[in-house]
Amino acid sequence: MNRHGVTSAGLALIRRDLLLAYRRRNEVLQPLIFLLVVVSLFPLGVGPSPQVLAGIAAGVIWIAALLANVLSLDALFRTDYEDGSLEQLVISGHPLAVIALAKVLVHWLVAGLPLVLIAPLLALWMNLPEAGLPVLIKSLALGTPILSLVGGVGAALTISARHGGQMLSLLVFPLYVPLLIIATGAVGSAIDGLPFQGQLGLIAAGLVLALTLAPLGMAAALKLSLE
User: What is the pTM for the complete model shown?
Assistant: First the structure.
């Protein structure tokens, strides 16, 4: 199949999934609402002290982003798997890696990008120092696609499991920990006036690696799950 045909198929799938997400917007909003609730509860639990909130702000926002991401991952391939659409996509002749990458892109647009856009409001609520805000936004912009890509591999592996949601959480959370440590470390370095470009560079390198390997991993996992 030529490159034009592959691109057209990918764009058509993106349009289809975005339309479906719009029709199920109540479900799509759940991770975002969950994120807002989690971040809002922390000041009530640890107290309104500005110093305490400033110290934990980056970690709280990132942890909430991880949880919100996992909350929406199980539906990444499951709906198409249950209604038979996924099998039709597999036998359509289009590269399965391209199909998987298109679905992950829609997942990030729906579940990841809103987290990046709402980050300034969350940072203000958590009293994050001004010096850390640009780095927090950059780390989320680079890191949330990694969450979707790595989580997509886990979603593909557990798509046929009876309790896939629980298995998915156990599978992906350990893989998210290094990103969490590096991202919060970058924000902390920026707040302390220390160099943070190295941590952001590591996240960018992780994104490139995930973009390269995750679609292939998802394609292999989907084939395995459909057998």
Answer: 0.88
Cβ 140 vs Cβ 115: under 8 Å? yes
Total tally of structural domains belonging to the chain: 1
**pLDDT tens, 128-137?**
999 999 999 9
Q: Kindly state the tokens that stand for 132.
A: 């850390």
Q: How far is CA 66 from the centre of its chain?
A: 7
Domain holding 152, by residue range, is 3-226
For residue range 192-215, list pLDDT tens digits in order. Answer: 999 999 999 999 999 999 999 999
Number of Cβ within a 10 Å radius of residue 86: 22
Q: Can you tell me the distance from the alpha carbon of 175 to that of 150, in angstroms, rounded to the nearest whole number?
A: 8
